[in-house]
Amino acid sequence: xxxxxxxxxxxxxxxxxxxxxxxxxxxxxxxxxxxxxxxxxxxxxxxxxxxxxxxxxxxxxxxxxxxxxxxxxxxxxxxxxxxxxxxxxxxxxxxxxxxxxxxxxxxxxxxxxxxxxxxxxxxxxxxxx
Length: 129
Prior knowledge:
Blueprint: E1 13-17, E2 20-28, E3 36-37, E4 41-48, E5 51-52, E6 59-61, E7 68-69, H1 70-73, E8 80-81, E9 87-92, E10 99-111, E11 114-128
Antiparallel strand pairs: 1-2, 2-9, 3-8, 4-5, 4-10, 6-7, 6-9, 10-11
């Protein structure tokens, strides 16, 4: 139902730290109609070319300044992911090789009054230059 909010177009790219590729990142909008604290992110899954990224490597941020692992985010109540604002997701490591990749993003959030997590899934073909 909320799949169109997941995995913003043209948001997947490698990112650099100290002049070197340090991983890749992408962005998503919330799969709900209002904001939530980061502690209500139930899970995020990233798969590249059919291979699932280990969950313990995924980091998220609402401001691209403060980053939290998914485990750390379980207790983060002071940062709120607002409706219409992207959540940034990054996967530290080698980054994506040049060329075309199929990247699938799954985002699930817990919300008030709904007993099951809301999940959105979107797969895109991305080109890394």
